[in-house]
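Slide 14.
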Amino acid sequence: MKTKELTTTAISEQFVKAENGGKGAPYINKYIGMKDEDGKPYLATATVFVSHAWQYKFYDVVFTAMQQHANEYANTYFWFDLFTNNQHDVADKSFEWFCTTFQDMIRSIGSTLLILSPWHDPVLLRRVWCLFEVYNALETSGKLHIQVPGSEREILAEAVVQDSDCLIQKLSNIRIEKAQATIASDKDLILKVIQNSEGGYYGVSKQVKDRLRAWYMEQLDDLVCESPDNHHLRVVTAEICSSFGNFGQALEHASLSLTSDEVSIKFKSYCVTGRVYAAQNKFQLALTNYDEALIQYQELKGIEDDKVEIRDCGLSKEMGYLYLDRCEVLMQNLLIQAGYGSLQKGMEILADEFGGLDSLTPQELVPMIPKFKKTVSLIRNIEFITQILSLIVTEENDGGRNSTSDPISYLFEGEVNGDKLDMMLKATEMIEQEGIHHQLPDLYHIIGLSYLANQQFNDALAYFHRSLKIKRELFGEIHLDIADILRDIGATYHQLGDVDEAFSHMRQSVEIREIVTGNNSLGVALAYQDLASVHDERGEYAEALQLIRGAFFIMLHIFGMESYHASIVCLKMNQAHNKLFYAEAMKLDVPPDEEFGKKLNNNIHSLPIHKFSVQLHDDSRNDAGA
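Slide 15: predicted structure.
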């Protein structure tokens, strides 16, 4: 076998031990006092701790370490256990000796290099002693560098082009508690140390995944810079940035990929750009990009038969999701008929792609998870529209008010509730058994929403928390998916009457949304209203009013004064004013000023809300007649 192909284990047996002649000393002792041709000593205080797996090819480890520190090579000294530990008696050392040695070295050196190979399933992260090194690097807050052998970077680039979800999948497959060791007792002792640390398995796993996620993005950026004309890689990088919530980078990469001559790449670029703008509540820009994507699709095939052609060009799912994305934006702008048409089109395409739901087995359901996720996302994003339709008055009869029905909810009836729940629970069992971990958090979230809709609140909370835990491992603390789950947890606690827990989770959701999308987003406005309802139940009317005002000004900023969005929040602001006024009056033991309340109630008629309610009432009757 060529020397380059030998593992570190083989190098130890064939060279280190043999050349050291059983002297019972570390290999490096033979170089004490020696210098190279430039007068630089071979041995000095280590500046980098090398964390690797002994199954790695020794040549790859050495070359990767030197490549990582090429610019600092003259001043870099590596702590490499193969050479620094005496390999003749290392098997006789106690567990405590290894713990102390590694901990002391990692702490004193202050810089650790993790060498990962293969990139998609690193051996290092499956070996318990390697994980112990990573754990100590994190615990001591030292520098933590990650690198893969050069050939692995090329494989990474190829993999993400083939499947943009592969990074999330690989992150989700890292399971610290599943790590192995040559000596079973070592595994038990190390895992106990990690489990007893602050955060336990979850805390350490999350820190590892946070660092890996950042490293993955750094690698993609480097690969794109090295191959600026590789537009396939660039548009996939844009999609991954968008998935991870890095909207600025997503827009930058998507914009540059539009220079490609390939229409399919332009199609995907416009889709990514539209989704980012929609997340940022730049709805007109989102619609413009979605429409451009449709134009690119028509140009790709040159005919109007969507169903036939999208299957031919391999864009079925992308087209289906594009129509659902357009539906979200249209309905958020109260273009209900257009939104419904886009929804129908998207669901038809996805149903044609995936097949019918009724005959699916749990195994066949796994590829359907993106569809369920998208549908649930749509339900959540048009919740405000549903709220408007259910709260607006359609007519007044002698001071009494009749609420409209909810003409949107029937669109999703049976989609994520009822008999579908049993199938999703079976699919969950199968996914857990087969280790398809990246699909689990979305499925857990959907099941939680199904339980919430059925008023099984404790079951809903259990699944929400399971989803939240995995999402935090995959995406970190700041991500819109996490804000959505926290909001749903808060809503569940609110239903249970635990207003303190409801407030805590809703507050966290608001804070994440403010960071990701800024203070003037529709999601923040809706979250403010959620928080206001909790303050209202606590009798904290001033705080509730302040939040409703905040939501009102956001609606003005996004949709304008004449919008119905602003009108419905104005109605809530009117109600909050009334409650605060009467509460303050009761504190002062002053009879409420009924004229003031009447004035506030009359203000609503100066806004377009009444006209809009009548229009919706007429539209819903026309739809029913059709």
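Speaker note: The longest strand covers residues 111-115.
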